[in-house]
């Protein structure tokens, strides 16, 4: 560190009492602050770079006579907001100095509704080849507003490279911080020509007569050493002069103070470094840069204003101002933007997107690639998100020669052959290394699907299922005349009496105490039986009615059962990690293959992600069911190039849709892919309580209606037989009426 070594040599060898310096990096400022604190010597800096803020209170000997560089964050944000740019890219030096402004810019922009969409770091010693790569990266960004924060020499190289990459053309906006603005006038005409349209800023100074005389005298003095040296007036020179004046004034003040308190001669006055520091902090005067005044921590307190400069022609011109008293940009001249344009760049460039989609043989409900069109619920969802974003550019879905291999498509997005990958692409750790995934828009996880064993609850005879095989029967003594008659009549009366006790009371009078006891016990039993029957029948109608034939993956592994997985899925590797053997794994592609493999028993279970399995269940209801634990996976997501601002905005939009209680994206996405909404499809299979569907008992209702109608006809015919003898006489023979009477006896 050249500046640090020079400072240390001045302290040890020359034994100076104070040092005036201009650190160019944060590391130099930190080192000099530590050096001054260690040797107890005041170091006056006329650079805007301050030591690390956390250590400033422990470094009292570092005095900053220039305004802090971080103060320029506000005027920069004012420029962005003046032209209503929603976002900007920060191109900064890869050092503590370069990144130091990022928190301030981020906070200020977010408070105004804008943001830093991306940060590009440029090494201090970057080669031209590296800068070409930086330009290529910047050129492919949507945002065309760039804030450049680095030392002037590196910034000048950036602008020269940008000009070569045709990025100093219409539609681009470049804003450079004061480190560039302070030194832009010293650049050669060739460099200036390559950066026309750049907007920069530098601290404002009032060009008084005193300032004019100083610069004239300064220029004559410098010219005596170098005829070719030229330096226009700048705030940095004024800060340097004021720093020198401040230390001289402080030394004189300290000497007079010491003279008043001692009896020594003027040449023997003991002026210590501590006295000099105290005197500097108390020094105030009207300097060339404005009023010189420091706070108790040694920082310049003078409110700072900035001139907004526009690089044009062979130099710069002032087009606006910004002041701390009125923190808003005032533009009094039109800015000439890159490309010699007076039209304000729009900011984010809604470029046309190249979107690749996977082409698969099965599950085309998600993405269906045909010769004429590309459709599917993934396509519909992406269109909906882009509509929500109000994306102004065009985008085109296209297929690729490797579109059947999702991993290859992900790599092509990484290599910038495509901008976006849209489809049923699962987030995995390997794929995340080089690309950006949005938040997942489907249910997360994978599990197994097996054949379901059906309960017989849909049978029309379900009403008799709650009964047990053993029934309680009661007999009644024949002394009761109501129960007298033939054995067949006694059985009918007793059977009718027993079952009717569940519904209504009877007029029959029981004469035997034993019979009464039996009836009491029976009625109590009927109460319990009726309650149990109701509960059991309700349970049979409302509980899960599809039971998996296999519930444990360990059983499949232990018994060496063959299992299936979707072709090309990451599930295969996960199954092998679980312990499944390669010969027992079957690759399947379509829903028809899933159905065929499970139906004929060629696989005992199929492992796949939940969205695919739910789709199978919706198409083949009550045939298969999911079982076993749900294993974690990333879910489906859209794929963008790494660091894509559009990818972040798509994620934010998806997240808002997911968080909306009225518009759950995961539910609506699955609903689009299934024939019926996910909230109602396979309700009986989902574990929820389904509603009773009378169509399930259509057979029982038909039989009951038929029997009731037949009974009504028989009773009507019997009534006619008894009440209208003339009709009976008109019917030849008595056999028909006798048969009718015999049938009626059963009812």
TrEMBL record:
InterPro entries found in the cross-reference section: ANF_lig-bd_rcpt, Glu/Gly-bd, Ionotropic_Glu_rcpt, Iontro_rcpt_C, Peripla_BP_I
Record Gene3D superfamilies: 3.40.50.2300, Periplasmic binding protein-like II (3.40.190.10)
GO cellular component: membrane
Keywords: Glycoprotein, Ion channel, Ion transport, Ligand-gated ion channel, Membrane, Receptor, Transmembrane, Transmembrane helix, Transport
Gene Ontology terms for molecular function: ligand-gated monoatomic ion channel activity
Superkingdom of the source species: Eukaryota
Protein name: Ionotropic glutamate receptor C-terminal domain-containing protein
Organism per entry: Oryza meridionalis
């Amino acid at each position: 560190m050249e500046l640090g070594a020079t400072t240390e040599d001045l302290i040890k060898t020359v034994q100076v009492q104070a040092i005036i310096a201009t650190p160019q990096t944060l590391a130099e400022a930190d080192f000099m602050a530590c050096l001054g604190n260690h040797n107890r010597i005041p170091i006056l800096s006329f650079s805007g770079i301050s030591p690390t803020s956390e250590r400033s209170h422990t470094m009292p000997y570092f005095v900053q006579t220039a305004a802090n560089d971080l103060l320029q964050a506000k005027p920069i944000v004012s420029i962005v907001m003046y032209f209503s740019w929603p976002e900007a890219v920060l191109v900064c030096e890869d050092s503590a100095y370069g990144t130091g402004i990022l928190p301030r810019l981020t906070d200020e922009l977010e408070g105004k509704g804008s943001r830093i969409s991306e940060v590009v770091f440029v090494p201090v010693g970057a080669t031209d080849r590296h800068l070409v790569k930086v330009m290529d990266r910047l050129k492919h960004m949507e945002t065309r507003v760039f804030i450049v924060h680095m030392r002037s020499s590196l910034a000048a190289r950036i602008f020269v490279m940008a000009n070569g990459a045709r990025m100093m053309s219409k539609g681009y906006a470049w804003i450079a911080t004061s480190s560039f603005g302070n030194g832009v006038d010293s650049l050669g005409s060739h460099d200036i020509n390559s950066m026309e349209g750049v907007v920069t800023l530098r601290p404002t100074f009032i060009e008084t007569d005193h300032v004019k005389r100083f610069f004239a005298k300064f220029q004559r003095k410098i010219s005596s050493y170098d005829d070719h040296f030229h330096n226009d007036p700048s705030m940095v020179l004024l800060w340097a002069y004021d720093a020198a004046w401040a230390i001289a004034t402080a030394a004189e003040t300290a000497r007079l103070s010491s003279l008043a308190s001692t009896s020594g001669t003027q040449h023997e006055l003991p002026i210590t470094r501590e006295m000099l520091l105290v005197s500097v902090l108390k020094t105030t005067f009207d300097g060339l840069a404005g009023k010189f005044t420091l706070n108790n921590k040694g920082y310049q307190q003078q409110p700072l204003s900035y001139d907004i400069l526009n690089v044009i022609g062979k130099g710069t011109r002032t087009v606006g101002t910004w002041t701390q008293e009125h923190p808003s940009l005032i533009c009094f001249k039109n800015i000439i933007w890159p490309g010699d344009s007076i039209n304000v760049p729009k900011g984010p460039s809604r470029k046309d997107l190249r979107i690749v989609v996977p082409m698969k043989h099965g599950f085309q409900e998600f993405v269906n690639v045909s010769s004429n069109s590309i459709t599917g619920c993934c396509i519909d969802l992406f269109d909906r998100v882009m509509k929500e974003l109000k994306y102004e550019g065009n985008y085109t879905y296209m297929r690729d020669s490797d579109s059947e291999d999702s991993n290859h498509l992900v790599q092509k997005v990484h290599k910038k052959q495509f901008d976006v990958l849209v489809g049923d692409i699962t987030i995995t750790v390997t794929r995340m290394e080089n690309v950006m995934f949005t938040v997942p828009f489907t249910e997360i996880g994978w599990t197994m699907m097996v054949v379901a064993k059906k309960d017989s609850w849909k049978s029309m005879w379900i009403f008799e299922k709650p009964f047990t095989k053993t029934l309680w029967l009661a007999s009644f003594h024949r002394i009761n005349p109501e129960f007298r008659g033939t054995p067949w009549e006694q059985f009918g009366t007793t059977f009718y009496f027993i079952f009717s006790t569940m519904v209504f009371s009877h007029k029959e009078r029981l004469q035997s105490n034993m019979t009464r006891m039996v009836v009491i016990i029976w009625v109590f039993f009927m109460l319990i039986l009726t309650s149990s029957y109701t509960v059991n029948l309700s349970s049979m109608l409302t509980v899960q009615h599809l039971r998996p034939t296999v519930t444990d993956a360990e059983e499949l592994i232990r018994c060496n059962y063959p299992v299936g997985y979707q072709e090309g899925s990451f599930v295969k590797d996960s199954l092998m990690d679980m312990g499944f053997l390669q010969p027992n794994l079957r690759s399947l592609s379509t829903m028809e293959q899933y159905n065929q493999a499970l139906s004929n028993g060629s696989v005992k279970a199929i492992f796949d992600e939940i969205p695919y399995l739910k789709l199978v269940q919706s198409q083949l209801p009550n045939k298969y069911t999911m079982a076993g634990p749900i294993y974690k996976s990333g879910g489906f997501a859209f794929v963008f190039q790494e660091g894509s601002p559009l990818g972040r905005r798509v994620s934010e939009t998806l997240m808002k849709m997911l968080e909306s209680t009225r518009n759950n994206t995961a539910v609506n996405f699955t609903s689009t892919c299934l024939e019926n909404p996910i909230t109602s499809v396979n309700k009986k299979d989902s574990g929820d309580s389904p509603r009773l569907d009378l169509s399930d008992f259509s057979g029982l209702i038909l039989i009951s209606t038929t029997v009731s109608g037949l009974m009504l006809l028989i009773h009507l015919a019997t009534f006619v037989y008894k009440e209208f003898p003339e009709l009976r006489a008109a019917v030849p023979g008595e056999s028909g009426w006798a048969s009718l009477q015999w049938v009626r006896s059963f009812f």
